[in-house]
Amino acid sequence: MFAEHFTAELEGNPSIVIQNVPGGAQKEGMNAYERSEHNGLNMAMSSGGLISSSHFDPEGIQFDLAGYQPVVAFGGGMILYGPGDTGPLDQLATSDRPVFYGGMELNASEAVRVFALEQLGLPRFEPLMGYDGGGAITTAVMRGELTLGNSTSSHYAQNVVPLAEQGEITPHMVQGYVRDGEVVRDPAFPTCPRCPRPTPC
Question: What's the pTM?
Answer without folding.
Answer: 0.66
